[in-house]
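Methods — Computational structure assignment.
A single polypeptide chain was analysed. Its primary sequence is given first, followed by the predicted tertiary structure written as structure tokens.
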Amino acid sequence: MASNTVSMPSPVCLIENGSDSQLHVNPLALQILDGIRQPVVAVSVVGMYRTGKSYLMNKLAGQREGFALGSTIQSHTKGIWMWCVPHPTKPDLTLVLLDTEGLGDVEKGDEKNDNWIFALAVLLSSTLVYNSTGTINNNAVQQLHYVTELTEHIKVKSQTDEEDESNEFARFFPSFVWTVRDFTLDLVIDGQQVTADEYLDNSLKLKPGHNKSSQQYNLPRECIRNYFPTRKCFVFTRPTTPENMKRMEELSDSDLEPAFVQQARDFSNHTFAHAQTKTMKGGYTVTGRMLGSLAEAYVKAIRSGQIPCLDNAVLALAQIENNRALDDAISYYLQEMEQWVAYPTETQEELSDLHSRFEKEAVKIFMDKSFKDDDQKFQLKLMESLQKKYQSICERNEKESRKVCESIIMNQFEVLEEKVKDGIYMTTGGYEEYKRDLQDFISRYKEVPSKGIKADEVLKDYLQSKEDIGKAVLAADKSLTEAQRRMEEEQARTEAAERENRAIREQQHVLQQQMEDQERTYRENMEQLLVKMEEDRKNAMQEQEKVIEARLKEQKDLLQQGFNDRAQQMENEISRLREEAQPKSRSWFSNVLETVGNVATLFLPGIAGKALGIGSSLISRFF
């Protein structure tokens, strides 16, 4: 697809339950996602079946119809359905809406499947909407027991030990929105008017005590508080009469309760304004194509009996995307060079300027599309590949120059060759005429434009091949004395030596320029690498600071509620997070550049002995 996004007329199934009772990723959905090169905002909705989840997704899509609503007690959505639409307020983003099958479907009766659907919704979204009806009472919280089982369905790291990773979830999990449908109560607590957010926070308060009852009460609340530090709540009144509820798809806003319409509008506006771009562990931005690859990786793990692992998914996706980035960068470079290089170039600088221009953009393309190239393996491949391509272009440029020059010589010196063949110069006074004609044809050759970088060398080679003819003409000229003949021979040798030196200087200039190109290549790559590493560091720091901020808020709430032991545990975690957030040192960046320079010297000999100095000068600009 030519554009960076798509606008689907209707939803398609992304992950389905197959006849073999296994989850499958729909190839059509993957094809659609593959055409989305923009970053995505992925909003998923989960909740008990027949609670009106699909209606919310249709509102976000700006449509009455799309995700099946249904009007019976049967669950209509099976698996996870996807609807990709242009983001209504952020043109550089695509909104991916994920509607999941209802949890607790009595006809399905498969809690294991529910757990996987819930886990996939968490893994694939940047905002998770949990939809329920009535009120947020203890029964409603306990129904969200799926959140307490996420540690059994999601791994952060790939190690095999039994380390509790739940503290890591807050870094990578989506923001959490609880939507409460058919809400009939007043938002009042202890006689005070409260917001929906305060109502949610109050519902998630912990109960003092360590007995079994308190533990059961607190477990889902602790999980929601710890895993989803960014939380929001919306309450909705009943939209219309029970009879009209059966035909919601047919109703316009004017047919619905005004309060409900405003509440739905507030929910949509909040989602459009605050739902974040989907990112992976490390703060890497996810495009539609990458989201499809993640879905494949997670479902593949589930089908093989494994637990989806964030680390493994990021590494697998990095391998795929970095190879794509490498191919895209090389393809761009070759396409542009093919279009813009007019063989032969008049000078090596002309070719060098084009190479510099398109190599710089190719490296940028790679940097923009690649991620987690921690050992710079793919960037080194790019550097080596572009160097080889450029070397091939240089060789072609030389061949084309030689071909053009030889053709010009054939045309310009044709008359001279004919005169030699007819013996016109083999007479008394013939050598002077031969020299005059030769200089005339040399001057004409030099005046012809667009000969390229082999002009002097080809002329030198041609005249060198004709030296015996000049000697024969000189010997046949009886008008010259022996002394004059020796002078002419000396002059011919001097001129030949000058031509040899010009050809050598011509070649040395080309080689010098190519060595400078290699140095510029290394400098450009390292400069863009440092910029990218700094951006990655800032993203990771922002990710870490976000978690620390949420943990500080949680710690404050715990202290206010009298849970001092839990607050102290939170303090220990905050200290650990702050230690991890320490910025990388200058020496770390230096070591990276030194390692890259040592490898790059193997295919960029022009940087030998200079890589360390180039790296140091670049790093000094960042520190």
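Note: The CA atoms of residues 122 and 154 lie 9 Å apart.
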